[in-house]
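Okay, can you check this protein?
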Amino acid sequence: MSPVALDRRGLWIAVGAFVIWGLMPLYWHLLRAVPSLQIVLHRAIWCAVLVAAWLTLREGRGWFRAVVAQPRLAGMLALSGTLIAFNWGLYVWAVNAGHVIEASLGYFINPLLNVLIGVAFLHERLSRPQWAAVALAGCGVAWLTARYGSFPWIALCLAGSFALYGVIRKFAAVEAVRGLGVENMFMFVPALALLAWIELGGDGGFFSLRWGGWTDVLLVLGGALTAIPLIFFAYAVRRVPLSVVGLLQYLGPTLQLLLGVFFFGEPFGADRAAGFAFIWAGLAIFALDGVRAARRRIVAQQA
């Protein structure tokens, strides 16, 4: 991998994105009375409305046409929008169904999955420490599956969908906010139609204030809250090396894990800790190898 100059602004924006994601379970917990599907539909709708309004004020009405006029780019953003909608949906359901710790596991696995995607699709080569890190993480997943009698599908689906989202957004040549706006506009009509069907069927509650006015306000604000880290991430991933982004991604799941144990009171016994220990060991090896590689690149540039 070729040396890439570190963009300090991009670095801090990436930190902000992962801290917001790490604390997000607290926000979804406030909406626990609302079915998870409806939370996700509201997120998609209000995120699309708010981002589209901002882009229209800033750039005029042509921002959407300028992107969809490029079929390849439009297709990439339609796919990334679908992936992030799936990711958010599963994540919200996991938090409100009492699976915060397993959700955090998904985002711990994500950096190592980024490495495997780099090997499979970007023709990147792994060092021996990186292969060891991936192997240890695989052992951790296998241990958790064996001890709990079920495959950690929540964690792996979250990791896989977000890893693919990051790859697509890295190569989608579009400004961060505009890309997010187009992603959400592709999701807007299906989300609005499904939410209208739920409301007309009597299972909703937004317009009737069934859950209370404060909950409705939180549903609207959820669109803005989830847009912010996505904008930050899309901005940073085009300016910061993926190896650095991979290291910073540990911030989010670490905060989620702490919330799962100390705020939500989910069980975290010795068996589960042992599985996580394999994964953390792999992450530590991966992080140390990344730091050493970065230092070697700096020395080579200064030589």
Observations:
- The two ends are 18 Å apart (CA to CA).
- DSSP finds twelve helices and no strands in the chain.
- The chain has a mean pLDDT of 83.
- Residues 270-302 form the longest helix (33 residues).
